[in-house]
User: Which sequence fits this backbone?
């Protein structure tokens, strides 16, 4: 009587290991990209609440709060400089910065017609994102000019009695392509 083969051959095991290796080679970089995008979403949510408050201030007053202001992760909910800027937009205590943002700087032009908010990134991706900066600034009105310059603000636009804010992102030169795409292909 012939004995039946038990177990797997070496070739079968090597094929399974090769398939697992190929799947891992594809899955691990994709997973790392998703982790980076999740961390960038924390940065985005930090900017969104401030953008909303600044847009409301602009709509009510016709200008952004004047003056510089800074917040760092170390201050944990309080502004380092320019607390009058944050209180003027309705923030009695500054929102805690996530670990992915090491510093937030805000500065306006002399008239308060435009501003630039710069976030310094950290704890995201050591080689290509940490230490880089993302700036956001508005162009007001339909016929606005380039970011960080005094825009032409029309009395109204297509929505009765309002002016439009268009947000522009500017990234550091060495910023990772994942982050550049995440922030609307910032330049």
Assistant:
């Amino acid at each position: 009587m012939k004995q039946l083969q038990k177990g797997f051959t070496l070739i079968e095991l090597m094929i399974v290991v090769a398939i697992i290796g190929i799947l891992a080679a594809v899955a691990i970089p994709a997973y790392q990209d998703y982790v980076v995008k999740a961390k960038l979403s924390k940065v985005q949510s930090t900017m969104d609440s401030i953008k909303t408050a600044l847009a409301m201030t602009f709509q009510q007053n016709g200008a952004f709060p004047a003056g510089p202001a800074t917040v760092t992760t170390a201050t944990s909910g309080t502004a380092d400089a320019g607390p009058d800027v944050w209180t003027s937009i309705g923030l009695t205590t500054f929102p805690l910065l996530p670990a992915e943002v090491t510093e937030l700087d805000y500065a306006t032009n002399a008239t308060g017609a435009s501003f630039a908010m710069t976030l310094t990134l950290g704890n995201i991706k050591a080689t290509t994102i940490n230490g880089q900066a993302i700036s956001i600034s508005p162009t007001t009105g339909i016929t606005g000019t380039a970011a960080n310059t005094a825009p032409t603000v029309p009395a109204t636009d297509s929505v009765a009695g309002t002016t439009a804010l268009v947000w522009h992102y500017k990234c550091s030169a060495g910023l990772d392509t994942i982050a550049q795409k995440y922030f609307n292909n910032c330049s």
The CA atoms of residues 24 and 30 lie 10 Å apart.
